[in-house]
Specification:
The chain is α/β, with parallel strands linked by helices and 355 residues long. The protein folds into 2 domains: 4-192, Rossmann fold (3-Layer(aba) Sandwich); 196-337, N-(1-d-carboxylethyl)-l-norvaline Dehydrogenase, domain 2 (Orthogonal Bundle). The chain is 50% helix and 12% strand. It has helices spanning 4-7, 26-37, 49-58, 80-86, 96-105, 131-138, 153-157, 171-181, 194-216, 221-241, 252-263, 268-277, 282-289, 295-309, 314-324, 329-337; strands spanning 18-22, 41-45, 74-77, 89-92, 115-118, 123-124, 129-130, 143-148, 162-167, 186-191. Strands 3-2-1-4-5-8-9-10 form an 8-stranded mixed beta sheet, with helices on both faces. A two-stranded antiparallel sheet has the order 6-7. β6 and β7 (129-130) form a beta hairpin. The longest helix has 23 residues, at 194-216. It binds NADPH dihydro-nicotinamide-adenine-dinucleotide phosphate and 1,3-dihydroxyacetonephosphate (13P). NADPH dihydro-nicotinamide-adenine-dinucleotide phosphate is lined by residues 23-28, 46-48, 64, 93-96, 98, 102, 119-122, 151-153, 291-292, 294. NADPH dihydro-nicotinamide-adenine-dinucleotide phosphate (NDP) binds at residues 23-28, 46-48, 64, 93-96, 98, 102, 119-122, 151-153, 291-292, 294. Its EC number is 1.1.1.94.
């Protein structure tokens, strides 16, 4: 598949590069599309040979993005070592549950100084590790970045105007990723708070589930605004206690991503919450979704961790009781509404500790 000229008019002003995208799901496909349209040669790795064959033949990933045609110099492959060896920059969009295993199996294929960027918004079960920490452990000789923001895959694939954040310690990594991805419909802002950007992307999935529940229950607009804003207070309280910069939560990777996933049924996490709010059981909702909803795993890990370190997260606790403890939604809402009335912005007015 090679149609480089068709794509050079899409806004890319930089010379073409060889890049790799690992993960053939919705987000890997969306980012492959941006990179391909920007004129880069994309070594697009997935584990399913039939899927790679289909993309090579038709340009379409019908399982994850039906009707979306990938244009440009796209090389679908099931050979990860080959994809990585040819790439200057590697983007990883593999769900958090499989992330370490895939990287570890191929750790020798990465080169010294190669830029590796995680696109994954999740947390590893054992040790509460974020994906950039896994990359640091498995391929420490690489330069690592994290891309996160309000980035619904389907909208990016439709070339809807979108912005995201590249977080990396090294300014060259930030600039390289901005140059590779930026175009007339996709803007890449920079941040140096890697931990905050990455944790924000994982945490907001929990509140997207809460928002889906609220939508299923036909809650009013006031309630939706309350949930989003208190979600922001709760996730930033937790993240700051672990070392994130509170200001990151005012940016695209914080409040930006929270807004998009809490207000859109295009979010898979929102859809899970909506289904449960309509009475469907969690397992059936996940099966029916057929794609990853990281929030259901993140919820468990954050509940455990917040309790271990003594951080008050009433929405996390309430959602956990609904999804995993069989609590009635009505009882949880009542207990949240009747809790001690407290500080709005606790970075200005500290919370009253009451429990
Ligand atoms: N979709 C979105 O809008 C966005 C997603 N993200 C994040 O990107 C990450 C990936 O999500 P997304 O692409 O949407 O997920 P999807 O559910 O759309 O696709 C999952 C992909 O991961 C692959 N996969 C699953 N297990 C393994 C494994 N063991 N080894 C190799 N590949 C595996 C699947 O392959 P197979 O089909 O063969 O099972 C499939 O290609 C998530 O962390 C998500 O939060 C971030 C921003 C936006
Ligand atoms: O992270 C996302 C948008 O920024 C995608 O959210 P979902 O995984 O809930 O679809």
């Amino acid at each position: 598949m090679s149609d480089t000229n068709a794509s050079r008019d899409s806004g890319a002003q930089n010379p073409p590069h060889d890049v790799a995208v690992l993960g053939g799901g919705s987000f890997g496909t969306a980012m492959t599309k941006v990179l391909g349209e920007n004129g880069h040669r994309v070594h697009f790795w997935m584990r399913d040979q039939a899927q790679a064959d289909e993309i090579r033949k038709t340009g379409i990933n019908s399982r994850y993005m039906p009707g979306v045609k990938l244009e440009g110099d796209i090389e679908p492959t099931t050979d990860l070592a080959d994809a990585v060896s040819k790439a200057e920059v590697v983007f990883v969009a593999i769900p958090s549950k499989a992330f370490r295993a895939v990287i570890r199996e191929h750790s020798n294929d990465f080169r010294d100084g190669q830029i590796v960027v995680s696109l994954t918004k999740g947390i590893e079960e054992h040790g509460f590790k974020l994906m950039s920490e896994i990359l640091q452990e498995e391929i420490p000789r690489c330069q690592i970045g994290v891309l996160s923001g309000p980035n619904l895959a389907a909208e990016i694939a439709a070339r809807d105007l979108t912005a995201t954040v590249i977080a990396a310690k090294d300014p060259d990594v930030r600039r390289t990723v901005q140059d590779l991805l930026g175009c007339e419909y996709f803007r890449v802002y920079a941040n140096v708070d890697v931990y905050g950007v990455e944790l924000a992307g994982a945490l907001k999935n929990i509140y997207a589930i809460v928002a889906g529940l609220a939508s299923a229950l036909d809650m009013g607009e006031n309630a939706k605004a309350m949930l989003i804003t208190r979600g922001l207070a709760e996730m930033s309280r937790f993240a700051v206690s672990l070392g994130a910069n509170p200001m990151t939560f005012m940016g695209l990777a914080g409040v930006g991503d929270l807004i998009v996933t809490c207000t859109s049924s295009k979010s898979r996490n929102f859809r899970i919450g909506y289904a449960v709010g309509k009475g469907q059981n969690l397992d059936d909702a996940v099966k029916e979704l057929g794609q990853v909803a990281e929030g259901i795993y993140t919820l468990k890990l954050v509940k455990e961790r917040s309790e271990a370190i003594g951080i008050y997260m009433p929405l996390v606790r309430g959602l956990y009781e609904i999804l995993y403890g069989n609590a009635s939604i009505k009882a949880v809402i009542n207990s949240l509404m009747m809790a001690v009335q407290n500080s709005d912005v606790e970075f200005i007015l500290p919370r009253t500790i009451s429990q």
